[in-house]
Amino acid sequence: MPIFSDASRHTVLVLELFPETAAIDQGELVLGGVRATALAEEFGTPLVVYCERTLLAQAREYQRVDPEALVVYGTKAFANVALLQLFAREGLGADVSTLGELRFALRADVPSDRIVFHGNNKSDEELRAAARAGATVVLDAPDEVERASNAGVERVLVRLTPGVEAETHESIQTAHSESKFGLDPDQALATVAAARGRLDAAGVHVHIGSQLARIDESLAAVDRLVEFCTRCRDQLGWSPRIVDLGGGLGVRHARADQLPTVAEFAGALVTRFREGWNEPARLILEPGRSLIGRAGVTLYRVGATKRSGSIDYVAIDGGMSDNPRPQLYGARYEALIANKAEERVDGTYRIAGKHCESGDVLIDAVELPRPRGGDLLAVPATGAYTLSMASNYNGVPRPAAVIVADGNARLIRRRETVDDLLRYETS
């Protein structure tokens, strides 16, 4: 059994949250064979770094769950053409919910039969665009049957709200009885009946929430989905040929987090559905966060450090404008000082952003070697719902993003500039 120093032990434990290629070389964090300091020097900070090997490994793990299933990337986790192209080459599709996300998928040449278009309030323009693209549209309200038909949509799924309350933050629960998404069983049944007369009613969709750490509620949703399919067969003489089981599996942001693997989570859902429903149906899986969350690391430059009362503050050159999840969902993160990853931990620090908000705190408390101005802070598991939810608060431009693989880094999103922000001003 290897014997670690306290510093090495801390680094090894935190490194579990980083991408598969993360390593420490001569005391410095390396991602995809590229030193973190070299990435920061070439591309600036804040910088989101994606590991290609981790992205591909997660995609392939989902495909192994059911080789016949269609895996569609939940684009809202981070709409990016390069990521969509990478996944499309692996046979994945795209789950989109707006005209903008659809345009990203089309720009990436995602095949039309692999695009699923969601949304609880689709505009007529979005329905027409989905029809032109040949996407499968998920009906989310009774009136969408007529509107989708008028727009020229062909293939549709009906979104069932199974009345399951996922154990996650209330803002990302999507299947409880008062959810804004989907239709209760009676409404869904009536919508299937109406859709059959005007559209290709291909199947049913269900999704219960995001950042899920348990399987139980998802299994309950599958059971209710099977009950609904049985009801459709018995009352309408209709059985789905496509069943979308959604996504929602979370990722570890902190060492204390315990989550199922892709095989444990998605595999259990597929097995449960197949056991309950023995008629032929092609499955769709919609992972987003669990595809790209661990693959992403954000690099920040340390600025001011000071003690305020009993708190040691470390300020970074980003914050809630590039990652609002701590403020929105109470998300917890951990970190390493990338340029001195093997130095001994000497205290607990609060990582504060640069914005004019007392609540702009990225990490409330993290153990680190003493940070100094100019150090490079690396925050793992930031690949999902960070850049996609970023803002220009305080007039701060949004960060760049790169993909690293085999010692090379490729820019996949350029850094915004203040001039970019001023382009929208009219005087």
Can you describe this structure in just a few lines?
By secondary structure, the protein is α/β, with parallel strands linked by helices. It has helices at residues 6-15, 36-43, 52-65, 81-89, 99-107, 124-133, 144-151, 185-196, 216-236, 262-276, 289-292, 325-329, 418-422, and strands at 23-25, 28-31, 34-35, 47-51, 70-74, 93-96, 115-117, 136-139, 155-159, 200-205, 242-244, 282-285, 296-308, 311-316, 336-337, 347-352, 361-368, 376-380, 400-405, 408-413.
Molecular structure report:
This protein is α/β, with parallel strands linked by helices. The protein has 2 domains: 167 residues, Beta Barrel (Lyase, Ornithine Decarboxylase, Chain A, domain 1); 241 residues, TIM Barrel (Alpha-Beta Barrel), CATH 3.20.20. Strands 4, 13, 14, 15, 16, 17, 18, 19 and 20 form a 9-stranded mixed beta sheet that branches. The protein starts with 5 loop residues before the first helix and ends in a 5-residue tail after the last helix.
Write the topology of this structure.
Layout: H1 6-15, E1 23-25, E2 28-31, E3 34-35, H2 36-43, E4 47-51, H3 52-65, E5 70-74, H4 81-89, E6 93-96, H5 99-107, E7 115-117, H6 124-133, E8 136-139, H7 144-151, E9 155-159, H8 185-196, E10 200-205, H9 216-236, E11 242-244, H10 262-276, E12 282-285, H11 289-292, E13 296-308, E14 311-316, H12 325-329, E15 336-337, E16 347-352, E17 361-368, E18 376-380, E19 400-405, E20 408-413, H13 418-422
Parallel strand pairs: 4-19, 5-6, 5-12, 6-7, 7-8, 8-9, 9-10, 10-11, 11-12, 14-16
Antiparallel strand pairs: 1-2, 2-3, 4-13, 13-14, 13-18, 15-18, 16-17, 19-20
